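Quick one, T. Sequence first:
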Amino acid sequence: MSWNDRKKQFQHRVANILDIPRDLMMDLPKIVLLGDVQVVIENHRGIVVYTSELVKVNTTLGELEITGLDLSLKNILPDELMLEGKIKSVAFTS
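C-alpha coordinates:
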Protein backbone atom coordinates (compact mmCIF):
# COMPACT_ATOMS: atom_id res chain seq x y z
CA MET A 1 0.00 0.00 0.00
CA SER A 2 1.42 3.37 -0.99
CA TRP A 3 1.98 6.35 1.28
CA ASN A 4 -0.84 8.23 -0.45
CA ASP A 5 -3.29 5.35 0.14
CA ARG A 6 -2.35 5.15 3.84
CA LYS A 7 -2.73 8.91 4.17
CA LYS A 8 -6.24 8.79 2.65
CA GLN A 9 -7.26 5.93 4.95
CA PHE A 10 -6.00 7.85 7.98
CA GLN A 11 -7.87 11.00 6.91
CA HIS A 12 -11.03 8.95 6.40
CA ARG A 13 -10.78 7.45 9.90
CA VAL A 14 -10.11 10.83 11.52
CA ALA A 15 -13.07 12.37 9.68
CA ASN A 16 -15.32 9.57 10.91
CA ILE A 17 -14.10 9.79 14.51
CA LEU A 18 -14.43 13.57 14.68
CA ASP A 19 -17.64 13.58 12.63
CA ILE A 20 -16.11 16.01 10.12
CA PRO A 21 -17.49 15.96 6.56
CA ARG A 22 -15.12 14.01 4.31
CA ASP A 23 -15.07 16.72 1.64
CA LEU A 24 -13.48 19.12 4.14
CA MET A 25 -11.06 16.71 5.76
CA MET A 26 -9.87 15.07 2.57
CA ASP A 27 -10.05 18.18 0.35
CA LEU A 28 -12.49 16.46 -2.01
CA PRO A 29 -14.65 18.41 -4.45
CA LYS A 30 -18.31 18.66 -3.54
CA ILE A 31 -20.63 18.82 -6.54
CA VAL A 32 -24.29 19.75 -6.15
CA LEU A 33 -26.50 19.42 -9.22
CA LEU A 34 -29.87 21.15 -9.22
CA GLY A 35 -31.87 19.35 -11.89
CA ASP A 36 -30.34 20.07 -15.27
CA VAL A 37 -30.09 23.83 -14.80
CA GLN A 38 -27.41 24.50 -12.16
CA VAL A 39 -24.23 22.98 -10.75
CA VAL A 40 -22.30 24.19 -7.69
CA ILE A 41 -18.72 22.99 -7.23
CA GLU A 42 -16.96 23.43 -3.90
CA ASN A 43 -13.23 22.87 -3.29
CA HIS A 44 -12.28 23.56 -6.91
CA ARG A 45 -8.78 24.45 -8.11
CA GLY A 46 -9.69 26.82 -10.94
CA ILE A 47 -11.30 26.89 -14.36
CA VAL A 48 -9.36 25.27 -17.20
CA VAL A 49 -11.84 25.75 -20.10
CA TYR A 50 -14.88 28.02 -20.26
CA THR A 51 -17.25 28.20 -23.23
CA SER A 52 -21.04 28.26 -23.52
CA GLU A 53 -21.02 24.51 -24.24
CA LEU A 54 -18.06 23.20 -22.19
CA VAL A 55 -16.58 24.04 -18.80
CA LYS A 56 -13.61 22.18 -17.34
CA VAL A 57 -12.76 22.73 -13.69
CA ASN A 58 -9.59 21.52 -12.00
CA THR A 59 -10.11 19.54 -8.76
CA THR A 60 -8.02 17.36 -6.49
CA LEU A 61 -9.46 14.32 -8.32
CA GLY A 62 -8.63 15.62 -11.80
CA GLU A 63 -10.60 17.70 -14.26
CA LEU A 64 -14.37 17.90 -13.95
CA GLU A 65 -16.03 18.38 -17.34
CA ILE A 66 -19.49 19.95 -17.59
CA THR A 67 -21.18 19.97 -21.00
CA GLY A 68 -24.40 21.66 -21.98
CA LEU A 69 -26.01 24.62 -23.71
CA ASP A 70 -25.87 28.29 -22.76
CA LEU A 71 -23.56 27.57 -19.82
CA SER A 72 -22.68 30.67 -17.85
CA LEU A 73 -20.66 31.29 -14.74
CA LYS A 74 -22.96 32.91 -12.18
CA ASN A 75 -20.65 32.96 -9.17
CA ILE A 76 -16.99 32.28 -8.53
CA LEU A 77 -15.24 32.34 -5.17
CA PRO A 78 -11.82 30.95 -4.20
CA ASP A 79 -13.38 27.62 -3.14
CA GLU A 80 -16.81 27.60 -4.84
CA LEU A 81 -18.28 28.25 -8.26
CA MET A 82 -21.79 28.13 -9.73
CA LEU A 83 -22.71 27.40 -13.34
CA GLU A 84 -26.14 27.72 -14.90
CA GLY A 85 -27.55 26.64 -18.26
CA LYS A 86 -28.93 23.46 -19.80
CA ILE A 87 -26.58 20.86 -18.30
CA LYS A 88 -26.14 17.67 -20.33
CA SER A 89 -23.33 15.90 -18.45
CA VAL A 90 -20.96 16.16 -15.50
CA ALA A 91 -17.97 13.81 -15.48
CA PHE A 92 -14.39 13.47 -14.29
CA THR A 93 -11.87 13.12 -17.10
CA SER A 94 -8.35 11.78 -16.93
